[in-house]
Every structure is written in structure tokens, then in C-alpha cells.
Design brief:
Layout: E1 31-35, H1 40-55, E2 59-64, H2 69-75, E3 78-81, H3 102-115, H4 117-131, H5 136-150, E4 154-158, H6 162-171, E5 176-179, H7 207-235, E6 252-255, H8 264-267, E7 273-275, H9 287-295, E8 299-303, H10 305-308, H11 312-324, E9 328-332, H12 338-341, E10 349-351, H13 356-360, E11 365-368, H14 372-380, E12 385-387, H15 394-404, E13 407-409, H16 417-428, H17 432-447, H18 450-463
Parallel strand pairs: 1-2, 1-4, 2-3, 4-5, 5-6, 6-7, 8-9, 8-11, 9-10, 11-12, 12-13
Length: about 475
């Protein structure tokens, strides 16, 4: 799943409406259906896209699970019950809060991250043999029932909601496919799902390990495609099977990513698409954070997201590196064991939940695992990044930032306090040319936010003959 900074479930809503992209009187009231897994890190950017329809006076309905119901309510949207998988995450994920089976899978994932990147990617690949298409035929019929009841004018779906997308394909319902991770979450050309096509400079995996990982990912792709085709035949036997289910996509691809960071050669072979830049959410005022910001000078924002905040050992080294440089920090602790962190320096802001967007708007540097929300929101506010990637598409995100000169990546299990401190010192003051380009990207992303880009792209899609 795409990771996000831990954020308070009661502080996840968008409470201030931006200017509506169209007058509510200009068009008849329409219905937008958003389909999302029951994960805050996925629902938040999807719901932020929906605010363009809400502010235009349209009806927005979100089909998702019960754990994120408060988020849907906070945005002022309607909710339809739809549980797309066995797990859930209302803001910070803990193994002990998951149902039986999911708790062990989560502990296994956390253990794999301590072994290294290949072990983690292999663990995630094997998990896909059972967790991406949970009861697909039943879920597909539930999705179809929701669509038939609502008759939505537009549908946007999380790309990873495979069972939901299968349902829409089976019933011939047009939809926009939102890739919330790095664009490589949709493989194109010779890419293989789950196998990183690029690596950051500091990462040099062994060739034999890479070959084994590639073979495993090919096996998973074949298994998943067979599962997709089996469910598709059950839901609509008139449709032909697909060659690679991971490469399937909607009528329009919405990439929650800045096009300026995308490799031009890869961009050229994408299906019809729109780069959204970032689906930045508006956050209600947090009085404690506002008071801290009023007195804080330059500071570094640190978050390993809703999953990987559990890696308190890495976070402890980051804290030591920042302290050695005399820098202040705001740290989203998430599920980290505070006993592993030691004393947090006086004057720092450290809480389980922090309003990430609010803090990135003022930060001088961010240190992150490389989750999509963290990367794209940092770009929106012109914040350079030190990335400590653990899994999935985080390696591709880190490589992109290094390629364009907006950050650096280090191996989280290997980077020492001194190495972290040296990297922080290099990145916090970008060279003039890179700083100017990052500022330009930030201005572009704030001038036309992702929600308005999505709104315009869906309008063009619906206008097609």
C-alpha cells in the first residue's frame, strides 16, 4: 500500500473549500464515485481529488471500509460500505490491531525490512499470491451493485483496487484509474510488477539475488493474471482473458506524481494519462503545531509513514544525526517504540500524529521512506528530501529525486549516524540551479493543484464521443 505520514483520524478532513472549478449553477448536479481500499494513506489523496466535484456542487460518494468512515465524513462525502481487502489502516497501522492472519503478515513484512531490500521485495511478492484479489467475484458483484444503484457520472478508482477495477471492466463502465504510487506501479514495456526497474545510486543489489527476484515476480504475475481471468470469466464469461493483469488500466490513467520527475522515455509509452502532481489535502488548524511553528526557526520534518514508522531503530539514528548538526525537527512517531528512541531534544515537536502538509509548507528538509504522499507533497512545497527507502516503489521514487537533483537516498539499514548527518548537510542547501528548478516545480504544483487537473481530465474523458 502507498504510505502516508501518520495523521490524526480526527484531523484528516478537508475543512476549507478551495475555489470551485465550475459554478454549481453552471451544470446539473452530477455524481462522482470514488472507490478506495480501507487505508487512510490511499483514501486521503483520492478524497482530496473529490473536493473539486464537491466544491462544484456535485455529489461525491466514497465506497470504502468502515475504518476510514471518519475521513469520508470529514470531507463531507457520502459513504457506501465496501471492504476491498482483509486489512485496514485508519492512520497508523499496528499488527496487533489487524485481524488474524493479517497481523502475522504485517509482522513478517516488518521483519523482512530488517533483512534488506531484496528480502522485503521478495516477501511482498509472495504476499501478492494471496492478498491482491481477496474474494474477487464477490467483491466485483458488490461494486457492480453500487454502480447500478448510483448511476455515477464519473468513477475514479485506486489502481490497487483490482477487484473493483475488474468489476468495472466486466460491466463496461468507464473509469479513471488513479495510481497513487510511483508511476512504475503500472508496468509498461518490459517492466515486471514488483521488480524495481531502477535503483538509487547507493543501492547495488547482487545480480543473482536480482535474478531470483525477477523470476519470483514473473511467477506472481502469471498467478495473478490467472486469478484475474478466472474471476473475470465468472463475472462476465463473454470477455476475453488478459495477458498481464498487472498491466491493465482504466480508460484514463491519473498519476499522482509530478510529470517533471518522470523519465521522458517512459512517459512516451504510457497509455492515455494525466500527471496530477500531488493530491494535497487541506488540514484543519492544529493549535499545538501552530504554536510550535510560531517560535520555530528552520527545521527538518521526519516521517516514515503509517507502516514503516515501526522502524524505530532507523528513526533513532536519524534523530542522532539531526541532533549532531544542531538542527530542530518535527517527527511523526507513528507506531515507533519510544523506548528505542531515547530522549527527544528539547524544542523538538514529536507526536504519534502530525499534520504533514502543514509542516512541509514550512520545512527546510524532509526525511522520509519515499512514500508517494510524502514525496509529492514535499515537491508541492519545494522541500528537498533525504529518502531511506525500504520497499515497493520507494526505490524508484528515490532514484527519480536523485536524477533531477532534488534529493538523495541512503540504505536505511546500513546508513550510520555520520553518513546520515553528512547527507543532511548536503541536501538541506541545494545548489542554486537545483533550488531554482525545485522552486519552479513547487510553484507549478500549487498554481494548478492535482484535484483541478483530475477534474479537467475527467471532463475531457466524459466529453469524448
Amino acid at each position: 500500500m502507498t504510505d502516508a505520514s501518520p495523521a490524526s483520524p480526527s484531523a484528516l478532513s478537508s475543512t476549507a473549500a478551495s475555489p470551485a472549478p465550475a459554478s454549481a449553477d453552471a451544470v446539473a448536479r452530477r455524481t462522482l464515485l470514488i472507490i478506495s481500499p480501507d487505508y487512510a494513506s490511499h483514501l486521503l489523496p483520492l478524497a482530496s481529488l473529490g473536493t473539486a466535484w464537491r466544491d462544484a456542487g456535485d455529489r461525491v460518494v466514497v465506497a470504502t471500509g468502515a475504518s476510514t468512515a471518519s475521513i469520508v465524513e470529514g470531507f463531507g462525502f457520502e459513504r457506501r460500505q465496501l471492504q476491498l481487502g482483509k486489512g485496514s489502516n485508519p492512520g497508523v497501522i499496528r499488527a496487533e490491531e489487524q485481524q488474524r492472519g493479517e497481523d502475522e503478515a504485517l509482522r513478517g513484512f516488518f521483519a523482512a525490512t530488517r533483512q534488506g531490500m531484496i528480502d522485503t521485495l521478495a516477501f511482498q511478492a509472495r504476499a501478492r499470491l494471496s492478498d491482491l484479489m481477496w474474494e474477487p467475484a464477490r467483491i466485483a458483484r458488490e461494486v457492480q451493485a453500487i454502480v447500478e444503484d448510483l448511476h455515477p457520472d464519473a468513477i475514479i478508482v485506486d489502481h490497487l483496487a483490482f477487484s473493483a477495477r475488474l468489476a468495472l471492466v466486466a460491466m463496461g463502465a468507464p473509469y479513471a484509474d488513479v495510481v497513487l504510487g510511483h508511476p512504475t506501479a503500472l508496468p509498461v514495456g518490459s517492466e515486471i510488477y514488483g521488480y524495481p526497474p531502477v535503483w538509487p545510486r547507493e543501492f547495488a543489489p547482487d545480480d543473482s539475488e536480482l535474478a531470483e527476484l525477477r523470476d519470483l515476480c514473473l511467477e506472481v504475475s502469471a498467478h495473478f493474471t490467472a486469478e484475474w481471468n478466472g474471476a473475470l470469466a465468472e463475472v462476465n464469461p463473454d470477455l476475453p482473458p488478459v495477458v498481464d493483469a498487472f498491466a491493465e488500466h482504466g480508460d484514463l490513467l491519473l498519476l499522482n506524481y509530478p510529470g517533471e520527475l518522470s523519465d521522458p522515455e517512459r512517459t512516451a509509452i504510457l497509455p492515455p494519462h494525466e500527471f496530477l502532481g500531488s493530491a494535497v489535502r487541506e488540514e484543519p488548524e492544529d493549535l499545538e503545531v501552530a504554536a510550535w511553528l510560531a517560535e520555530a526557526g528552520p527545521f527538518v520534518y521526519v516521517s516514515f509513514g503509517s507502516f514503516l514508522s515501526v522502524r524505530a531503530d532507523v528513526l533513532a539514528r536519524v534523530i542522532a544525526a539531526l541532533e549532531s548538526l544542531g538542527l530542530r525537527a518535527a517527527i511523526a512517531l507513528g507506531s515507533a517504540d519510544r523506548a528505542e528512541l531515547g530522549e527527544i531534544p528539547d524544542g523538538w515537536l514529536a507526536r504519534e500524529y502530525l499534520p504533514q502538509v502543514t509542516l512541509l509548507a514550512r520545512a527546510s528538509l524532509a526525511i522520509t521512506h519515499g512514500g508517494n504522499n510524502s514525496v509529492t507533497e514535499a515537491m508541492t512545497y519545494g522541500v528537498p528530501l533525504l529518502v531511506l527507502p525500504f520497499s515497493t516503489d520507494q526505490f524508484a521514487a528515490a532514484e527519480a529525486l536523485e536524477r533531477v537533483g532534488f534529493g538523495q537516498a541512503l540504505a536505511p539499514n546500513a546508513a550510520s549516524v555520520d553518513e546520515l548527518a553528512a547527507a543532511i548537510g548536503r541536501i538541506i542547501d541545494l545548489p542554486g540551479e537545483a533550488r531554482a528548478r525545485l522552486d519552479g516545480l513547487s510553484a507549478s504544483l500549487r498554481d494548478v493543484p492535482g484535484r483541478d487537473r483530475a477534474y479537467a481530465a475527467l471532463a475531457r474523458l466524459s466529453a469524448r464521443p
